[in-house]
Structure formats: C-alpha cells, structure tokens
Amino acid sequence: MDIEVLTGSCLCGAVTYEVRGPFLRFAHCHCRRCCKATGTGHATNLYASPERFEWRSGRELAVRYDLPTARSFATTFCSRCGTPLPHHTRSGREMVVPAGSLDVLPSLAPQVRAFWDSRMPWSCTMDDLPRSAEYPEGWR
Ligand SMILES: [Zn+2]
Ligand SMILES: [Zn+2]
User: Structure pTM?
Assistant: First the structure.
C-alpha cells in the first residue's frame, strides 16, 4: 500500500512541510481556544505521529505559543503571515496539523465535532458528524 504524503504551506509561502499517513484522526474543534487561535468558528485539524512530520522550509519562522492556563493547548503560526501551522502536543505524542494549511486534500474526511457544547451559534455545522460535548471518546 502506498503511504499517503501531504504537503502544506503558510500564506506567504515561507514555511512548508510534509506529513505522511496513516493519520490518527481528523476533527473539527469548536472550543473557545480554537476559535481565538483561528479567528473563526472552529479549528479543523489532522493528527499524525510526530515521526511522520517534517519541516521543508521556514521552520525558523514558526512561533509556538503554549497557553499557560491550559493543560495542553498550544498553537503555532508563521511570524510573517500569521497562518496557523503544525505543532506537537505538549505530551509530544501527536502532531496537530491545521487542515487549512494543507496544499492537497487528505484521503480522509473529518470524523467528529469536538467541544460541540462550546460552539458559537454562527459556526458552520451543516453535516451529520457525531458531536461531542467536550473531548470525544478516546481523546486524551
Ligand atoms: Zn508565512
Ligand atoms: Zn479546540
């Protein structure tokens, strides 16, 4: 079986990366932190094992922010254009890849809407995906 290879980049093009499947999950998250970090109604992230991720260019422009009041929330963005970029979870066990920064379509589609109970009433939600009040079953 061929290994799925996805490439991604930021808006200004300085930061580029590659991430290889198989992927752990693909999910929308409606929590307030994701709204702030993305500037919209939810984040959409693809999760992969860290050893399957590689920066291609511009790594030095990627700035990480670990929210001090959170157990694990972090974000990373291009310091030139602000695009949300991949980052590892604080545990180091997973890479969180913002789907909007991908340059190609992943083979899988989002599987769940996390933190459904925190959603903004104006957020796009027109689908039949399972909704989880907070963390979906099986998430840490
Ligand atoms: Zn950029
Ligand atoms: Zn979230």
Answer: 0.94
